[in-house]
Every structure is written in structure tokens, then in C-alpha cells.
Amino acid sequence: MMRDVAYAQSEAQRMLNLLLTPEHEVPAAEREKIEQETVENFANHINKGWLKYRKSMTEAGDYASVEWTGQGSILTDTRGREFIDILGGFGLYSAGIRHPKIVAAAKAQLDRSPQYSQEMLDPLRAHLGKVLAHLLPGDIQYGFFINSGTEAVDGAMKLAKLYTGKAGFISTERAFHGKTLGPLTLMGKAMYREPLLPLLGNVRHVPYGDAAAVEKAIQSAHQVGDGIAAMIAEPIQGEAGAIIPPDDYWPKLREICDKYGVLLIADEVQTGLGRTGTLFGVDHWNVTPDIICLGKALGGGVIPCSGFFASKKVWECMEPNPFMHSTTTGGNPIACAAALAYINVMLEEDLPRQAREKGEYIVEKLEGLKAKYPKVLKEVRGRGLLIGMDFPTDEMGWQVASGMFSRRVLTAGTFINAKSIRIEPALTIGYDLIDEMLVRLEDVFKSIAGDL
Asked: Over the stretch 319-358, which tens digit does the pLDDT of each residue have?
């Protein structure tokens, strides 16, 4: 491909013109052109491999289903067809798509200043830190803001190593902590790790939910002289399929880490900020970690925002050289405005309670479907609106996800467990949409059962 500056400028301007045109005024022919070009552009400039995994390609018929707009728990494609969103952007849309209060806060800050100077003190980042310090469990007080969950875990790993002077980590099987090289080392699935080995050294993986295995791994590391900086786990494993640990798991982790001088990191990127029916996942067991990672919902589904946070005692190792960890765009004013607005919405609308009550409602209905279609739905589990459905095979899991798409419901499997299909909608989703989703889900089950 040869450089063509004039063409690049004209194409940039063409798309900008579309963005500036009210969505209802874009002609149907232009929307169809967008469909065709989007497929071509993914194939030629992003990754053609993605196209065969997108249900919007494989299940849409003679055309690609291209996302156009959304509101609340409804997404609309370029042809005006509406989809019930129970995927929630993998936990991104806890407040729903385009929550007006969050969008308004981001727009207001955009009109004021979209980024910070890097030299003057920025008030929104500091204020967001204060607000979170009063929400986070225990004595967690300080934090660093970045853009993604994997960056938050990366920063937590770095902080743990700085504080303890040790290099090792204990992670869990089937864990998902992100895909940059540090968090990838903690990953609990071989297919993402193997092509990139070797990763960081001195990382041990143990079964999730087995506190005794954690203690044994720490003891083993100490016996051979490998220092362990931290144990990291998700309060509830998200990508493994909403795996809930035994009730004594997190309290025991806290005891074990205290006993051996190991930090405890809670990866709350997916479980935090209301998703599981409490403010934070660890609140189910009244446990305070040493370091906590947030992301996804923190930016309100409007601007990427994440962070890692710790107690004053742990954070002090960052103070002699505050540039040991830095970012150019992380915690920018628009992201912080969106995060502050999300927190306000979360508390004002009591999203944790909504998640808890709606989750209980959905699980009860799914248990009914499980009894009715035992050869299709194998298991249901979850807390709040982080719900996993297990099916007998990977292929059947795909049948369910694709069947739902053809019935205009968005859902997907998980990165770690292909047999699991997630139900992870906005915490604001209405019961009318939940009921309609369940009707369409039963229709999928009925269709699959008829072929068995």
C-alpha cells in the first residue's frame, strides 16, 4: 500500500462529516456503504481474523450487522434493527449505554479542557481519588489512574514488587487479569500464554477457591528462596464463567497473606462498582485487600478509566520517586469527570441493589429453564448481574450465543471458558427487557433441544 495523503485526508473528512450529521438524517444508502466498508476495513487494516468470530458477520445473513447507536440496554445497527444488550461491553456498561448524566459530565469537561498539561495540578483526578478513598474497603487511600484493566493489574504488580522487594506472584487457574505481558503471566489459560513464553518468572498458579493450595505454594516458594510479593485473585472469576469461591476463601486468603508477609491483590476490574450486588466484590466477605484494581465500569461506559489503589503504608514506596510509574493520558479530566458521574449515578440509583435483585430474578428464571431443558443448560451461577450459564460443549455454547444474536439479543462466551455464556447487562436494565430476553433464550433452548 502506497502513501496517499490526499486520499487519507478526504476519507478522514468524509467520516467526520458523517459524525457531524444527525444520525436520523444519514441516508440508508450511506449506511449500507458503511456496512460494506467496515468489513473491508477490518479485513485490510485491523485483523481479518476477527471477522470470522463476530456473530455480526457469521449470523447476520447477507450483510454485516454494524453498530450504529445505543441507549440504555438497546443497541441499534445501521439498518435500524434493535438488539437487547445483555453483554454490557463485558461489564463496561454498568450504568447503561450513554447514561445522560455521565455523557453530560464528559461533554462539560471536554468544553473546558480535554487533557491536562502534565505540569499543573489537575483537580478532577485528585477529587476522584478522594471520592474513591471514601468508597473503597478498609484503609485503602491512595491510587493511580490509567486507561484499562490490564494497566491497573500491571501497576498493582509493580507496586507489590516495589513495596516488598520480592518478585514472585501467586495467581489462580482460569484467572483473567489482562493481556499485556505482566498480567498475561498471571493468566490462567494456556492458549493465550504459550505463544508468548517465556513471560515473567516466579509465578505460580493454584486452583481457584483453594486457600490451602495458596498457602502450600507460598511455603514451597519460601523453601527454595523465591520471594512472593503478592497473591492476586478475582473476588468472583469473571472470564472463567462467574465462578464463586467458597465463603471462607477470601477470609482465609487474608489470613494466609498476613501470616507470610505477602500482599493480597483483588482484581475488581469486572466485579467492582456494583456489578455483583455490593459496592465491591470483596464486600461479600468483608475482606480488605492490600491493593485493589478497578476498571471497566469506572469510566461510566463513556471514557476509558481504570486504577490501582492501596493503603498509605503500601503506597509510601511510591513517594520518594513519584515518576516510578507514570502515564500521559491516564486519569485525564474527561475520564475523571465520567468516573465521578458514574459513582454519583451508582449511588443515586443504588445500582448494587439493582444488580442484586435483578440477578436473583434472572438466576431463578434460569434455574427453571435448566429444569425444563436439562440436556441444554448444564449449570447456572453468579452474583448480582455477573451470571454464567454452562453448556455441555463449546459448540452448544456457540449455538446459544449465535441463536440469541439471530433473535436480536447480544451476548457472548468468555475468554477462559468457551462452554460458558455470560449474562452481564447494564445494572439499569429494565425487567421488561429481562423478561423479553428470557423468552428469546427459551426459544433458543427449545430449538437446540429439538435437534438433540
From this structure: 999 999 999 999 999 999 999 999 999 999 999 999 999 9
Edge to edge, the sheet with strand 67-71 lists 67-71, 74-77, 82-85, 409-410
Measuring CA to CA, which residue among 83, 81, 65 is closest to residue 73? 83
Cell of 255: 489470613
- The cell for 53 is 468470530
Separation between Cα atoms, residue 346 and residue 274, nearest integer Å: 7
Residues 229-286 have pLDDT tens digits of: 999 999 999 999 999 999 999 999 999 999 999 999 999 999 999 999 999 999 999 9
Instruction: Give the C-alpha separation, 255 to 295, whole Å.
Output: 26
Is the confidence at residue 374, as pLDDT, over 80? yes
Q: Which of 238, 262, 151, 252 is nearest to 188 (CA)?
A: 238
The C-alpha atoms of residue 282 and residue 272 are separated, in whole angstroms, by: 9
Our CA dihedral for 232, 251, 260, 202, rounded to 10 degrees, sits at: -20
**Which residue, chain included where needed, has cell 482484581?**
267
H-only helix segments in 165-298: 181-186, 190-193, 211-223, 249-260
How far apart are the C-alpha atoms of 18 and 6, rounded to whole Å? 19
- In the three-class reduction of DSSP (H, G, I as helix; E, B as strand; rest coil), residue 360 is classed as helix
Cα-Cα-Cα-Cα dihedral of 158, 163, 164, 169, to 10°? -30
**Through-space distance between the first and last CA atoms of the chain, rounded to whole angstroms:** 50
* Strand 168-172 relative to strand 228-233, pairing: parallel
- Domain architecture of the chain: domains with CATH: 29-95+351-451 (3.90.1150.10), 100-348 (3.40.640.10)
Instruction: Give the closest residue to 380 by CA, choosing from 283, 234, 244.
Output: 244
| Residue 153 near residue 182, CB atoms below 8 Å | yes
Q: Considering the entire predicted model, what is its pTM?
A: 0.93
Q: Rounded to a whole number, what is the largest CA-CA distance in the chain? A: 70
